[in-house]
Design a protein that fits this description.
Elements: E1 8-14, E2 21-26, E3 31-40, E4 49-55, E5 61-66, E6 76-80, E7 86-87, E8 92-97, E9 107-114
Length: about 120
């Protein structure tokens, strides 16, 4: 089933998920983060990659772990949320990767927000 028309998504590309960092999105309207997806553009090696999300610098919440074993282009993690990740218009939605893996592997992050 498709998302309701009032929901919106934003995406960004991380140049190298094997380098610790964060990708920031700005909430366009008040509502809730409903989904975060991370897709690899290639395999990661040596360690798993842990992804979390923080809203307005609050304590990070788990998105998921990308296992290096068996990872490849197109490997995808998806985390669905209910009403626990509230955002205000202009909130800073920060998706954080721990950079534990090696190799230079880009990844796409997509967030979905509902009113």
């Amino acid at each position: 089933m498709p998302d309701p028309i009032s929901w919106y998504s934003d995406s960004a590309i991380i140049a190298d998920i094997g380098t610790a960092g964060s990708t920031r999105f700005i909430a366009r309207q008040a509502g809730y983060v409903r989904r975060i997806m991370v897709m690899l553009h290639g395999a990661i090696t040596s360690a798993d990659e842990v992804v979390t999300v923080s809203i307005d610098n609050a304590t990070a919440v788990a998105v998921g772990t990308i296992a290096n074993s068996g990872s490849a282009e197109g490997t995808l993690i998806t985390k669905e949320y209910g009403l626990e990740l509230r955002v205000a218009a202009g909130s800073n939605i920060e998706v954080i990767n721990n950079g534990a893996s090696t190799g230079t592997t880009p990844a796409t992050i997509q967030i979905t927000v509902s009113p």
